[in-house]
Amino acid sequence: MIPATLDAVFQEFENRTNMEKSLPAGNPNRVYRLDRMRRLCAAFDNPQDSVPSIHIAGSKGKGSTGAFIGALLSAQGFKTGVYSSPHLINYRERFCICGLPFPENEALECAGEILQKLPDVEKDLRGERHASTFELLTLLAFVLFRRCGCQRMVIETGLGGRLDATNVIRSPLAVILTPIELEHTDILGSRISSIAREKAGIMKRGVPVWSARQKGPVRRVLRRNAAVKELPLTFLSSRLKQIRPLPGNSAPAGDSRPPLFSWELHWKNAPPETVHLAMGGRIQAENAALALAAVRETSSREFLMRQPAEALRQLTLPGRFHFLRLNPLILIDGAHTPRSVEELSKAFAPLAGKNPLLLFGSVLGKDHLAMARRLCGKTSSIFKDVIVSTPGTFKPSRPEEVAASFRRCNTATLLIPDPAEAFRKALEMAGEHRSILICGSFYMAGAVAELAANDLAIASQPS
Question: 45 pLDDT band (50/70/90 cuts)?
Fold first, then answer.
């Protein structure tokens, strides 16, 4: 029976092998494979190639960069679908069209067709694993964006690149690589060069590639791949001289309006350009610059200079510099790598007021000790009180190990495994005057956002 609601559809998908939650036993190369996804797409006349696309991989910044690109394309008049992961609270967050929620009736029809055809398609897989949750979500994105008449798609990889379900796209308009760091080492390899090779797997012969700043070993891997595949590779640093913060990049604690963050982009062969962003941190300015450069180069229409600035200014994303409350400030962010939490802390500090509090949760496979050092190191920490908790139940975690890492930097770190209890403790400790930063994982951000949506303690606090 075909589910009658989209929530039921997502539950049906969720009942499949969900490799975002846990990796099944065995060789990852036998679990992550593209032949399954190719057969699924073939059953629907290859929707992944029916709409011109921009394909994005990287360790961090994929969601923001993809959203910036989607906003810029929409500002040019292209009906643009954006597919991203993970979600904060609900799978619906992974799909949007021109920055707006997708039409649920269309999505339900598409999902119904997928579930109707799925048994016959899976019979042809001849004993291979059944379609995974992420494969079905990705197929839904391709089918939905085609059904809705999208003129452009922005597609974000889920994990890695080479064997990611999104890598059935044969010839995108462009490939975007955001900063690549050590992550998912149990699947992608223990060296950053190995991880870079996996991410570079989405590079296609002749398709232009735009890359953010990368470490030396990553640059070497990308250049080798570009040479082999005979494609133009452009690093943002070759086009952008510097990013300079402008006055007014912070708002005093207690301000009733969310701040805007203003940056001046100094291009090498163009006049300086000012952008105003609702999401804080230098890394967001870099993501915006990468999006601007890539869209300008790949756009088939005249790029209107006044539209991009407004498109970027209005963009907000769940779990990315997300103001849960303004006064006293509660900020949630999915930052989950050493560099991203450091950049987040720098952006948060001018807004934080005195003696802010940190609530942190990290899933397995992340370098929580390095993140602890960036957030609570002796020379730079603004956090005297730290609470470590479980980042929800979507992915496995070991909060006791995370707490041990933080105690090496801050002996007063509290371990409260229950995220609801941890959040309430943070609210109690913060009172009416101290701000709170919540980070370490999108799943931590999502757990708190869901709690806050139903927590009277938030509603009753000053705002």
Answer: very high
CATH of 322-460, one of 1.20.210.10, 3.90.190.20, 3.40.50.720, 3.30.930.10: 3.90.190.20
Cα–Cα distance between 457 and 441 in angstroms, integer?
A: 23
For residue 461, the model assigns a pLDDT of 46
The residues pairing with 326 across neighbouring beta strands, listed in sequence order, are: 329
Q: State the fold for domain 6-313.
A: UDP-N-acetylmuramoyl-L-alanine:D-glutamate ligase (3.40.1190)
Domain ranges of the chain: 6-313, 322-460
Q: Using alpha carbons, select from 193, 184, 189, 202 the residue that is nearest to residue 19.
A: 184
pLDDT band (50, 70, 90) for residue 29: low
Predicted confidence (pLDDT) at residue 425 exceeds the cutoff of 50: yes
Who wins on pLDDT, 67 or 16?
67
Taking the C-alpha atoms of residue 274 and residue 46, their distance in angstroms, rounded to an integer, is 40
- Helices 34-42 and 133-147 meet at what angle, rounded to 10? 30
User: Residue written as tokens 């062969």?
Assistant: 269
Say yes or no to pLDDT of 146 above 60: yes
The distance of Cα 52 from the centroid of its chain, to the nearest Å, equals: 21
Measured CA to CA, the distance from residue 83 to residue 277 in angstroms comes to: 21
pLDDT of residue 136: 97
String of DSSP letters for 1-63:
---SSHHHHHHHHHTS--TTT-PPSS-HHHHS-HHHHHHHHHTTT-GGGTS-EEEEE-SSSHH
Cβ pair 320, 64 in contact under 8 A: yes
Which tokens go with 298?
Answer: 């790949």
Residue 462 has pLDDT above 50, yes or no: no
* Best CA proximity match to 288, nearest among 212, 233, 342: 212
Q: Compute how many other C-beta atoms are within 10 angstroms of the C-beta atom of residue 230.
A: 8
Cβ neighbours of residue 346 closer than 8 Å, sequence gap 6 or more: 281, 282
